[in-house]
Amino acid sequence: MNYKTDTIMIKLIKYVALCSTLVLATSCGDQLRLDEREASFNKDYFTYSRYQLTTSIVNVAKSYGQAATDAPRGQAALYFMDCYSGDQIPAFYTKTDANWLFQDKNAYAGTGNDGAGQLRTLEAVRKLATTEGNMANVAAADILKCVVASYLTEKYGDIPFSEAVQGRTGDIFPKFDSQKEVYENMFAMLNNAVSILSDANSKGLPADHDVLFKGDKTKWIKFANSLKFRLMVHSYEAFKKAGKDLSADMQAIASSNNYMSAVADNAGLTFPGTTEAESWYTQRNWGTGNTFTEQKPTKYLIDQMVALDDPRMYVIFAPVLSPLSSKPAKVDEAVKINGFTYTINHYPATADDAAAMVAAGRDLNGNVTSVPYVLDAKWFGTPNPTNVQAQYGGTGLTGSNGFYDNRRLTGFSALLSKTSDPRLKAVLMESDEMAFLLAEARQKGWISAGTVKGYYENGIKLSFLRWQIEDGTKPATYIGSDKIVDNFTAYYAKPGVALDGTTADLEKIATQKWLAMLITNQNEAYTDYKRTGKPTFIAKIAASFGSYTYPQRYMYPLDEASNNKENYNAAVTALGGKDIASAKMWILNF
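Now predict its structure.
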């Protein structure tokens, strides 16, 4: 991902840092955990922190960004529904992971080279860099550690943190820090990182090993401040209830302007695209391509984008490739949008198709409704998570691509099938998110700097720009376009977008943030909905598809329940006595 894979990755050797929380198999006992720790420390290594820093940046970014293909999370945010396995919401309630997963990689244990063990690798960076006197590397490692820790605590609740990955001196059965303690520790780490990076004499972050910001300390500082602001917005209400007001700290960041405010500030890695492991998540050059074809945007997402004529739709999605048609015979049409040409096969609807012309769905209040197919549809999302591959004929009609696809529905654009492109990144945090966080904080009175309207419109602008949408004269149609151009000011003024100065503005801020995080940050979109309950239609629709209430968390790993039971029990007690997906963690209890 713009990193020297062929040279640097070869030099990466196993390091001394130990994951003190678990081993992979749930049947393992205490002795095996001890044996694993000893074996880890008995391996010789000779390396430098700069090599481990490269590994850490790549593995943290790749795993965090992989939520773009996380079917349950995508459905929970009402972004996508999966052709292959239908309703994904129950997965939050029925699946218990074997160990601590940071998007399918064990963040505490495992080797750094396969994308696992991010916390181990980051601890190795800290120890090696401290010995070397390269404190800027320590600062970068701590910022990345806060990315991983915030992901884990917002996924599970209380987590091992202060006693975790401490090597030989650490406890093999670490306590679970309360979520409040985890946040306080992260705030302190980010403050310290900014202090180190602000020191002109701090050493480290060589440009050829810092694959995120090429050694630019000012961008790392902006990342740290923006990440801290995100975490303060997430936890503001919980800290306020606990007697601590975070407004002063938030105001200090907002007033400093030392945060992500331009696309160039974004924390994300572009994939090289030379191998499968170094390519964008939904690329089609290797494997079956199912990741690209099986996720279909929801009707609720496409309806929002069509209503706003949102230019991002024409970048992220392709028109329906095999629509049922009013035409008397099959017609093939070549359509170019945003520089990519699609062959659209219009298949005539016949009497045999009558039963497939209507699918069950939900309206915006979650009520069951019939959704008729729009003949010759250009943009049409799936109305129901069950049997997506069979809706409107699906696999049963000519032109369908089989069980992993439904060409009667909108799919991803050709852009998203590429192995590499400046727009396809492993995203950690971006400037548009920061702008929307500022807009929310300003609207709620948590900060006094800036204006809600200014932050909000800047968030939309930054989202458009990160997708390379240009500001200018909007064409009458995007059919035949080589690029997407829109009049940004006219977009801000649309009735569904423009703010009116009331509390209703929070819904529009949340909706635009939801649209901006599409494909870029499903982690944050899921957390945001749990935290705010907005966009409000998510609660009404997502919960209506099953008998479960909306999932608030993942259940703790099986390994902790069996091998770290005393600390696990204490964490479950803090949740209210039950390790269940509907239990609300500390930041959500206000």
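The mean pLDDT is 88.
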